[in-house]
Design a protein that fits this description.
The complex is a heterodimer of chains A (290) and B (421). With 290 residues, chain A is mainly alpha-helical. Chain A is built from 12 helices and 2 strands; from the N terminus they run ββαααααααααααα. The longest helix of chain B is centred in the N-terminal third of the chain and has 21 residues. The chains are: A mainly alpha (290), B alpha+beta (421). β2 of chain A pairs antiparallel with β4 of chain B.
Chain lengths: 290, 421
């Protein structure tokens, strides 16, 4: 009967199964993930996500426009410098839409990474006053970014119309690809948010990590620059799979990234599961340290 | 078959010292620590010294064992740092115990603060749902009680206004309103009543006794002895992390005033932004010095030291004096000295002199009052100072009553007996 954070739920003997018995004790060894408990707290997860979304658009000058400005201006700069001047190849696509299709999921990933890694420290008032599975906090931060992603997707659709890119059946792959981006962002976010509670200088490392990661992801350039098997191995960076996947699914870039995506999915899952266990292990001291 | 709601056995919580001063580290320090640590270890190995020195730590809670029966309202009292809040944090699963365990039989909710998670940008309505969910309420439960919460908080017209535009009073009412409608079988409450003006506190207290009367199990941590006495069916007294006693409210509260109540209150913390007034000290003195107990035959002085940050009009400063079992004896303000007080910024000391042979020997407590006349109360927490009066003579006997004024008796023979012997 041992499960997460030293708490286990059993059935009370006294009240014929109505009163759950909660046992509070020191947790030992590797804690379980407590997915069942996470499910029980799904409403809180929903409300926190909603809060993050609402707060993001209130009290900002441009509101939802920020979701577009960030990838749009990066795209303009990339198109000018990489597309026009450096003549970076773009898999026979127009460079602006080639880079924008990558920047949409990339921006989601980078923002999710940034928000989730600061989320625990930012919610210290909650963590020291109320119990709930702490995993909810970084998860809500990542998921709330989906609204931004959706808005940016609308602009992408506009660009597809402008460049006359036809929609194919592969477009349905966007859903699992987005899920992969969520898993990657949350996975890294879990590691960083837990580390950030213990070590406050992680906060300064996050923007650097995000920037560095963008350069090692085929956002401004195509992964087809690499030859096999290196291109497939490139998938170890899960965002490489996501970005190439987006281009393939939406723009019909003829670079079906099948094996690469398989590697990316595996890598993302490993990061997520590892991050979740690390997070769980650190969770019990959050309230004492944060 | 037992009717136990909370069972606590040998519960202990250890904190590392220094973790208060600087609770988090930086990665750089850790890395440097590893390096210098191994150097130090190598050096001490060479010298043949013991290698490991345990990090200094403190037991905030130790060997605490008690049961709370279903429907019981257990008060937890003790001076600051006695472990009351740590106990509550462990029981609400915010932090893990270091040793021992606790069993909670039933759905538990904890209120360690009102308005946890309130977001200023969100509207009253949105905050009700968010705060409710944070406290562990299901959406259906919140919906069901939504109207009652709104009615309690009296914010009907402002439901769709961001709470940052609320007055402090509205904000607190809304926050307490959500908390008061938490319908769990077991409730852990930490001094949530210590906020707001007197009328609001009264309202909250009323709501709390309603909760207590519905047969729910409540663990209530408070410094407000009056509230503890009124609400609790039993009271446990904490002393430096350990359970010093558990029993009838009156006897536990007496034990608290006997040995734990501070005979002096001192606050030298920094001023908060926007603060008008800060009570810096409350001291009781006899013949110019503080002591553990005071001779009831001699006059004594109750001194209040306070700092005024903003010019204040109509300041009321004084105290209520209660017997240890909560009977109010009197209230006194410093108005008498200067008329309705207006104060320029500065450090002040108001002293009230009580005559000797006025109060019976016994335990009393002085509860501080500070406010702007007909406007609002100023001090956020209830500052309470214990007062122990005793007689130093062997011949002292207990008389009934609270007061012992030396009546001005005159005796005279006014005539002969009506019946001759």
């Amino acid at each position: 009967m041992s499960s997460l954070a030293g708490v286990s739920l059993g059935r009370g003997r006294e009240r014929a199964g109505t009163a759950p018995v909660l046992r509070i004790t020191r947790s030992k060894g590797a804690a379980a993930l407590g997915l069942k408990e996470l499910w029980e707290y799904r409403e809180l997860f929903w409300f926190l996500t909603l809060r993050d979304i609402k707060v993001r658009y209130k009290q900002t000058l441009l509101g939802a426009a920020w979701a577009v400005i960030q990838p749009l201006f990066t795209m303009l700069v990339f198109s000018l410098f990489f597309g026009r001047l450096a003549k970076v190849p773009s898999d026979n696509l127009h460079y602006p839409i080639f880079s924008f299709a990558a920047l949409v999921p990339w921006t989601f990933f980078a923002n999710g990474l940034n928000l989730s890694s600061n989320s625990l420290v930012g919610s210290s008032n909650l963590i020291t006053k109320v119990y709930f599975p702490r995993l909810i906090v970084p998860a809500a931060a990542v998921i709330s970014g989906l609204v931004d992603l959706l808005i940016a997707m609308l602009v992408l659709v506009g660009m597809m119309l402008f460049y006359g890119v036809g929609v194919q059946a592969t477009v349905l792959w966007i859903v699992p690809l987005t899920l992969l981006a969520v898993i990657s962002s949350l996975g890294v976010g879990l590691w960083l948010s837990a580390l950030n509670v213990e070590y406050r200088d992680v906060r300064h490392a996050v923007p650097f990590i995000a920037q560095f990661w963008m350069f090692i992801t085929p956002v401004a350039y195509p992964s087809s620059l690499l030859s096999e098997p290196w291109r497939t191995l490139y998938g170890l960076n899960p965002m490489a799979g996501v970005v190439e996947g987006f281009r393939w699914a939406l723009l019909g870039a003829n670079t079906a990234p099948g094996p690469m995506l398989a590697i990316s999915s595996l890598a993302a899952l490993l990061i997520l599961v590892g991050g979740a266990f690390y997070f769980k292990r650190m969770e019990k001291s959050f309230a004492d340290v944060v | 078959m037992s009717d136990v709601a909370i069972r606590v056995e040998g519960l202990g919580k250890r904190y590392r010292i220094g973790s208060h001063k600087k609770r988090y580290k930086t990665l750089r320090e850790s890395l440097a620590g590893v390096a210098s640590g191994s150097l130090r270890r190598a050096r001490s190995l060479l010298r043949g010294e013991p290698v490991r020195t345990p990090p200094p730590s403190i037991w905030a809670l130790r060997d605490v064992t008690f049961d709370v029966r279903r429907g019981e309202v257990l008060g937890v009292i003790g001076r600051n740092g006695a472990g009351k809040s740590t106990l509550l944090k462990v029981l609400s699963r915010i932090t893990e115990p270091t040793e021992g365990h606790a069993e909670i039989h039933g759905r538990i909710g904890s209120l360690l603060e009102v308005g946890t998670g309130f977001h200023p940008e969100l509207t009253g309505r949105e905050n009700i749902y968010l705060n409710g969910a944070i406290l562990g309420m299901k959406r259906a439960e919140i919906q069901q009680q939504f109207d009652q919460i709104v009615a309690f908080a009296e914010v009907e017209q402002f439901l769709d206004t961001p709470v940052k535009r609320y007055s402090t009073g509205m904000y607190l009412r809304l926050a307490f309103g959500v908390a008061a409608h938490l319908r769990t079988e077991i409730l852990l409450v930490d001094e949530v009543l210590a906020v707001g003006d007197a009328a609001f506190q009264k309202k909250c207290l009323g709501k709390m006794s309603e909760v207590a009367e519905t047969g729910r199990t409540v663990l209530f941590v408070s410094h407000n002895m009056d509230a503890v006495r009124r609400l609790c069916t039993s009271v446990c007294l904490m002393r430096s992390g350990q359970l010093a006693g558990i029993g009838e409210p009156v006897s536990s509260i007496n034990a608290y005033f006997e040995s734990d109540a501070v005979a002096e209150y001192v606050d030298d913390g920094p001023a908060l932004p926007g603060e008008d007034l800060r009570i810096r000290a409350v001291k009781i003195e006899q013949q110019g010095s503080a002591r553990d107990w005071f001779e009831y035959r001699m006059p004594l002085e109750i001194a209040i030291e306070y700092e005024v940050f903003q010019p204040l009009q109509n300041l009321l400063l004084g105290f209520d004096l209660y017997t240890s079992n909560g009977v109010p004896v009197f209230r006194s303000y410093d108005l008498a000295a200067r008329g309705m007080g207006s104060r320029e910024p500065g450090f002040y000391r108001s002293v009230c002199r009580l005559p000797g042979e006025f109060l019976q020997p016994g335990l009393y407590y002085v509860q501080l009052l500070a406010g702007l006349h007909r406007l609002r109360w100023l001090s956020k927490e209830k500052i309470t100072v214990g007062l122990k009066l005793a007689g130093s003579r062997e011949s002292d006997v207990d008389f009934p009553g609270v007061l012992c004024p030396r009546g001005d008796w005159r005796v005279a023979r006014v005539g002969a007996c009506s019946v001759s012997p």
